[in-house]
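> Could you send the ABC transporter substrate-binding protein prediction when you get a chance?

Sure thing. Input:
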Amino acid sequence: MTTDDRGGCGSRATRRRVLESLGGTGAVALAGCLGSDGATTETSTDDSVTIGLSSPESGRYSPIGDHERRGFELAVTHLNEGGGLVGGDGFARLSGDGVLGRTVETAVADTEGDASTAETNLQQRLGDDELAMFTGGVAGSVVTTHRDLADEHETPYFVGTSTLNQLTGENCSPHVYRELFNSRTLARALVPEVVSDIDGAQFFFQVTTDTIEGRDLKRSINRYATASDLDLRPIGTTTVRSGSTDFERALSEASSNSVDIVFLDLFGLDAVNAIQQAKEILSEDAVIVVPLLTQSVSDSLGERVEGVYGTVGWHENLDTPLSSKFGDAYQNEYSGTMSTTALVPPGPAQNTYGQVLLWASAAEAAGTFDADAVRSELEGVEYALGAGSETMRACDHQAMRAVPVVRGSTGTDSVGNYFELLNGRRNVEPGCDEPPASACEL
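Output:
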């Protein structure tokens, strides 16, 4: 898979037997279920294989979940019909005729941003060996539940829009893979870029959502900022309830400390609401940073996102051959008339799209859907998804890749993007002998 774009519902069979049969000459029918949980499933047959998306389609993270679903569905379309990064300079092993000669079908479930809902949706499907892989998820409690289910049922899980350190650290799994960078890598890419762009920064304040993912980001940013030689020191932090619409108290506390930088360790609609209020409460000199920005934030704020710094999962202006190829494919699929409608391909969509293709190519190389065989093909593999050369690191199943650092602008670029790409920082991942990877035992 080496490429470089720089230039039962019935009785339980064993998972290994089912997937070996799917990848070989035998035929095993996978009975699909439609439960009362609101999930939708297309039933598998001996000519098909089913993959799953477990993503927030309702709740505070639903805009991100919508983007994950678009990327997932586009990947399946290309696997079955060709197009995008399938074949050619992208994933040459993929033919556009399914995977291992089987049509790829889908099971999609709404997590509602809730771990117990995610578990209810997935448990029987995984227990009945319906899914050859699954992806998606945003909330930290959800993605850790996904991890536990992947481990329990020996099913490949490709993490959704989550930078949670523990997934490629102390809570890693031989069946979990992540394309998106982790929080420590994010901090090492983002903080120096922000400091270099704003002269005289000295003090920062953090507003953190009271969630696993919020606390994880806060620790990573604080640890890097205080351990580096940057002229940057923490002056305070405050925690807010996820789902809150009132950030006045937290932002007023930041403002009263006369800070240079305010990190809003928030996601989804929380980030949108906090940015709007921060623009009114903070001084004009204060710099706002949202560590992980998504296109849904600029979709909601438009030019009001001006001056906000952060990272994104992907940016079309990374300017690699496959970057343009994915961007064109996404826009052609979803934006209607391209001459009159600009649609920015969002990071969560590109992430989910790429991971589905990465799994499919590994299955083709292995000649089976068996999780252990797929793992052997994925560990150490070099590939490209539109952000330059990448490697799926064997020690922790964390992708080594570029981290796009952006700043919001008042005007849009040629594709309607309000995020100006400042840098696609590379080689900033902590090594296998450093946290979080050093705590990972696969």
